[in-house]
């Protein structure tokens, strides 16, 4: 309707005398007396009203004279009209295709005509992993920008003007935004241009500019001056256009002559007033525009005097560009000279410091041999690397030495620094504990706490793990408690805040990054083992352990283990112990989905399990992204992982020592079957990394006496850890052999020492199973295949997940800095990686040598027939006969399901889906689980299932079994992702399908063909693998305020 009003005014202006038309406009705006000079007032409100009316009137005149892009009004086509609309929309900001379609007017057929013009005026910028594809206006089209485009709203006008001024500043140009060159009116409307050169318009412009020149602030505004300058620019461009297209005698448009002549006798002509306002301080923002207008006056004067117009115009217009270029060159020269002086100053300082150092260490330089000063850098580097590799050992008596560093942390709440010490106040990190199926090998399997099995022994399927993630932000325990209490008080009074955080489960948002958290692991002074010593052989320690577990037999002194070295344990402050209890209770409650009970014997087990599972999850992410284990984590991520390991190691200090000892004895029974209990699982039913972490962190409890609190010495711990690691590694190698019987056949190969060791091991395993009738040729073939399997499929993740073990030992003991370990553990070749990791863990590079070095463990009298019991277990026999499903190694790395590239394939799949429980043919809302690929019927009463005593929808019930309560679903008909974290929390997320314009299409409203974006789907996979779904839901609910909560449990 607004466009039709403008059209009617243009028709009227073309039929009327311009002075008469302008007087009617002034009367309509009630400004006739104001510009006639017969109305004066000192009332501030009335002056403000007149100023606003003047601004509106000047804008209307700009629109009537300048808006000519209507077919029939001027010589333009519909395509030209659409191009101009698109250019002005993109001058506000780069826009997506859908935003452009919404901003363009539609024709009778409800079409915008965007497709035919968009490539002419804009370039397409492809989207990244987030956001939309954007169109950016081409530089050659920016000359058509009109700051007073009549389809702009007030906010769009401000944004467009600011954007274009910013662009011109970045291009080292002035901030002038002149009116564009308009198209010529058609002959019936050509008289409209007379509005710009009639006497009334000259009078109006003089009065406006005069008030600005007199600098009376209450009588004018900057917006008035800006509009007046734009009108003058329009008039000058029109006059220039006519002078260039026709001879001077035929041109009747004489705005420049009237602007110079009328009022010149008193120095109040438009041209004279422009020269005056150029120096007004309050009009500094319009200074560039005033200069441009004055230059246009000179150009038109040259055209009328028939001097060289083109030369004069080029010379005049090039002056500001040349001056700007000169300024830019001068500024660059000044900066270059300043930088040169700064470099000279720094070099002089460095030279002076070097001279002072040489003079103060003159004797050192005099005694330095030439081979060292000149030297061979390559040899020195290699020798240093060899020495570092020899010193980089984390396990056993040859463990390297690293001095303890003083650690000082800053509280993010009170900003006070504090040194981390055992007797100091506790420093806690924000963390989130959640159940996870990211690493599961048997989706849908549930783990229940029954007898002595789980959580003492984690099954190798890793069906459900407990993951603890931290953003790494540190607080004092007292500051955190005050913050948590404040969150509880404010959240209870907040509308729908229970959807974001669950107060009953102790959830809160990190004060700094707003990550969802539910616990606080404490940072304590780390336990360093730095003085390696020799101890007695391993059998003596095992005898002590055996006498401990069989105390009533009276064979050995139960206290014989204490003879290998003891020391006084490190005491923790009450504050640290309190925070350890808080974190351990949360891990136990979330992991086992049980009521809080800090006295439960499973509390330390769940702490060790979450430590092991978190390390496994991090290693899985880094392997998925093809990143090295060390050097890839950020400092805050590393700090969070370090706190989790230390928290798990401290569980033995606050738990019952009898419980810890019983747990260790049970775990040791897996490695030493002669000491096993009745329900001890076989090798094929245990995850050995969880077992390794639990045994390493619990073995110090064996040194506790009833009335004396003791812990092993450094040398005792060194040998304990060394032999535990060796036993676990050997057990896992046998586990791999027993569970992976499909080694690829190898035609021929060179028989090496490693091959012979592999053949010997394979023969021993075959001898104790039902595959004892193997010829030497077949045995050699299998041994070569086994060797290839280990090097190709398990390197550098060496069998037992040695990169996980590497991470655990490095964080637990901090033996070497990150950079050096990265260089050693991540060599150029896979063989070099394997050797470096084995060296760090005190393992032979040929892992089969472990069986030769410790062969007495399996044949000696102390632990007789352990190897036979490993292989002859009833569960192993069932597995070899195919009656028991086992996990194959290396484990399968889980990813989201493969989606079709074309979204129409999913729509076809959904069209054939019918709910198995529905009696009618209605297909409801087909929803695809991205974890397992199951098609579900969501938001339907036919598929309600009971869960914890409450009826829930199909997606909620499926997420409880498939993702341990976490779900990621694709609603096919709505084309959106649904993230779920519990029965009451969820959020929507953009689908990874984009159209040709790089945009998603929620609810398929636009109907454009959609194609899978691999980058966005990869980001969704990372969101799941990094356990960030809960955090994403919390952030989404924090941003989106809803009055009525969505019933996620019915999805």
Kindly report the average pLDDT value: 77
List the strand order in the largest sheet. 13-12-16-17-18
Say how many strands there are: 20
Count the helices. How many? Answer: 39
Share in helix = 40-55%
Catalytic activity: S-ubiquitinyl-[E2 ubiquitin-conjugating enzyme]-L-cysteine + [acceptor protein]-L-lysine = [E2 ubiquitin-conjugating enzyme]-L-cysteine + N(6)-ubiquitinyl-[acceptor protein]-L-lysine
InterPro entries: E3_ELL-like, E3_ligase_UBR-like_C, UBR1-like, UBR1-like_WH, WH_DNA-bd_sf
Family: Belongs to the E3 ubiquitin-protein ligase UBR1-like family.
Function: Ubiquitin ligase protein which is a component of the N-end rule pathway. Recognizes and binds to proteins bearing specific N-terminal residues that are destabilizing according to the N-end rule, leading to their ubiquitination and subsequent degradation.
Task: Spell out the key features of this protein.
alpha+beta, Arc Repressor Mutant, subunit A, 5 domains, five-stranded antiparallel beta sheet, 20 strands, zinc ion binding, E3_ELL-like, ubiquitin protein ligase activity, UBR1-like_WH, transferase
In short:
The protein is of the alpha+beta class. 49% of the residues lie in helices and 8% in strands. The longest helix is centred in the first third of the chain and has 52 residues, at 309-360.
Description:
The chain has 39 helices and 20 strands. The chain has 1051 residues and is an alpha+beta fold. It has a five-stranded antiparallel sheet. A hairpin with a 5-residue loop joins strand 17 (976-980) and strand 18. The radius of gyration is 40 Å and the shape is elongated. It is an enzyme of class 2 (transferase). GO terms for molecular function: ubiquitin protein ligase activity; zinc ion binding. This is E3 ubiquitin-protein ligase.
């Amino acid at each position: 309707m607004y466009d039709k009003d403008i059209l009617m005014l243009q028709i009227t202006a073309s039929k009327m005398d311009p002075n008469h038309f302008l007087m009617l406009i002034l009367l309509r705006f009630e400004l006739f007396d104001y510009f006639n000079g017969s109305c004066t007032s000192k009332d501030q409100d009335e002056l403000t009203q007149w100023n606003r009316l003047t601004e509106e009137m000047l804008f209307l005149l700009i629109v009537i004279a300048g808006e000519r892009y209507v077919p029939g009004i001027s010589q333009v086509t519909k395509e030209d009209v659409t191009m101009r609309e698109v250019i002005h929309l993109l001058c506000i900001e780069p826009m997506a295709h859908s935003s452009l379609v919404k901003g363009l007017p539609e024709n009778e057929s409800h079409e915008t005509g965007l497709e035919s013009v968009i490539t002419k005026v804009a370039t397409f910028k492809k989207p990244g992993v987030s956001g939309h594809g954007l169109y950016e206006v081409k530089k050659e089209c920016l000359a058509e920008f009109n700051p007073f485009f009549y389809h702009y709203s007030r906010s769009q006008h401000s944004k467009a003007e600011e954007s274009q001024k910013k662009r011109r500043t970045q291009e080292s140009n002035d901030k002038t935004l002149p009116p564009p060159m308009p198209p010529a009116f058609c002959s019936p409307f050509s008289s409209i241009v007379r509005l710009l050169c009639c006497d009334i318009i000259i009078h109006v412009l003089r009065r406006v500019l005069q008030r600005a020149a007199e600098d009376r602030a209450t009588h004018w505004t900057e917006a008035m001056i800006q509009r007046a300058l734009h009108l003058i620019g329009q008039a000058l461009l029109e006059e220039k256009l006519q002078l260039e297209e026709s001879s001077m005698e035929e041109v009747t448009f004489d705005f420049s002559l009237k602007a110079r002549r009328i009022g010149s006798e008193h120095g109040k002509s438009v041209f004279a007033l422009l020269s005056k306002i150029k120096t007004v301080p309050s009009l500094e923002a319009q200074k560039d525009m005033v200069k441009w207008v004055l230059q246009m006056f000179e150009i038109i004067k040259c055209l009328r005097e028939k001097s060289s117009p083109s030369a004069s115009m080029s010379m005049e217009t090039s002056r500001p560009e040349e001056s700007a270029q000169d300024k830019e060159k001068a500024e660059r020269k000044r900066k270059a000279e300043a930088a040169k002086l700064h470099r000279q100053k720094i070099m002089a300082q460095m030279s002076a410091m070097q001279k002072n150092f040489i003079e103060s260490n003159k004797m050192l330089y005099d005694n330095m041999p030439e081979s060292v000063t000149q030297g061979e850098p390559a040899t020195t580097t290699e020798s240093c690397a060899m020495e570092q590799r020899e010193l980089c050992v984390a396990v056993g008596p040859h463990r390297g030495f690293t001095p303890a560093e003083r650690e000082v942390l800053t509280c993010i709440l009170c900003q006070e620094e504090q040194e981390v010490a055992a007797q100091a106040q506790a420093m806690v990190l924000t963390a989130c504990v959640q159940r996870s199926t990211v690493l599961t090998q048997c989706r849908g399997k549930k783990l229940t706490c029954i007898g002595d099995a789980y959580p003492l022994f984690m099954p190798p399927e890793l069906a459900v793990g407990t993951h603890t993630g931290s953003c790494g932000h540190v607080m004092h325990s007292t500051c955190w408690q005050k913050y948590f209490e404040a969150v509880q008080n404010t959240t209870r009074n907040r509308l729908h805040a229970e959807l974001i955080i669950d107060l009953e489960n102790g959830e809160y948002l990190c004060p700094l990054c707003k990550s969802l958290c539910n616990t606080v692991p404490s940072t304590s002074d780390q336990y360093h083992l730095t003085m390696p010593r020799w101890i007695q052989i391993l059998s003596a320690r095992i005898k002590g352990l055996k006498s401990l577990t069989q105390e009533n037999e009276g064979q050995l002194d139960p206290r014989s283990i204490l003879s290998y070295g003891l020391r006084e344990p490190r005491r923790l402050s009450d504050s640290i112990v309190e925070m350890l209890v808080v974190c351990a209770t949360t891990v136990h409650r979330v992991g086992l989905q049980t009521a809080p009970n800090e006295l439960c014997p499973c509390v330390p087990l769940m702490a060790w399990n979450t430590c092991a599972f978190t390390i496994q999850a991090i290693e899985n992410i880094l392997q998925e992204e093809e990143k090295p284990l060390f050097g890839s984590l950020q400092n805050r991520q590393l700090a969070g992982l370090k706190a989790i390991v230390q928290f798990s190691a401290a569980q033995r200090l606050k738990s019952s020592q009898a419980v810890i000892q019983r747990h260790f004895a049970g775990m040791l029974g897996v490695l030493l079957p002669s000491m096993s209990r009745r329900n001890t699982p076989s090798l094929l039913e245990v995850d050995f990394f969880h077992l390794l972490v639990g045994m390493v962190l619990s073995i110090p409890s064996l040194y506790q006496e009833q009335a004396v609190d003791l812990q092993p010495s450094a040398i005792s711990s060194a040998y304990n850890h060394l032999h535990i690691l060796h036993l676990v590694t050997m057990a896992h190698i046998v586990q791999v052999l027993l569970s992976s019987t499909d080694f690829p056949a190898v035609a021929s190969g060179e028989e090496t020492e490693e091959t012979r060791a592999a053949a010997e091991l394979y023969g021993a395993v075959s001898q104790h199973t039902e595959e004892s009738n193997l010829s030497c040729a077949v045995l050699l073939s299998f041994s070569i295949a086994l060797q290839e399997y280990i090097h190709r499929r398990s390197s550098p993740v060496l069998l037992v997940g040695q990169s996980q073990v590497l991470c655990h030992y490095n964080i637990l003991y901090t033996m070497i800095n990150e950079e050096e370990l990265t260089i050693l553990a991540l060599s150029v070749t896979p063989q070099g990686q394997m050797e470096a990791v084995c060296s760090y863990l005190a393992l032979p590079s040929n892992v089969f040598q472990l069986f030769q070095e410790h062969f007495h463990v399996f044949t000696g009298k102390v632990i007789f027939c352990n190897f036979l019991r490993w292989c002859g277990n009833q569960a192993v026999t069932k597995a070899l006969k195919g009656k028991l499903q086992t996990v194959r190694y290396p484990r399968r790395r889980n990813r989201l399901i493969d989606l079709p590239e074309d979204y129409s394939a999913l729509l076809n799949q959904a069209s054939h889906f019918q709910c198995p429980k529905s009696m009618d043919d209605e297909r409801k809302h087909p929803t695809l689980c991205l974890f397992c690929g199951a098609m579900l019927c969501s938001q339907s009463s036919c598929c309600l299932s009971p869960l914890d005593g409450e009826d829930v929808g199909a997606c909620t019930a499926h997420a409880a079994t498939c993702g341990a309560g976490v779900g990621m679903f694709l609603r096919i008909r709505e084309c959106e992702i649904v993230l779920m974290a519990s029965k009451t929390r969820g959020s929507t997320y953009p689908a990874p399908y984009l159209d040709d314009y790089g945009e998603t299409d929620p609810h398929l409203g636009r109907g454009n063909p959609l194609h899978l974006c691999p980058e966005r789907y990869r980001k969704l996979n990372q969101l799941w693998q990094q356990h960030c779904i809960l955090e994403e839901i919390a952030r989404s609910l924090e941003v989106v305020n809803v009055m009525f909560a969505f019933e996620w449990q019915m999805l």
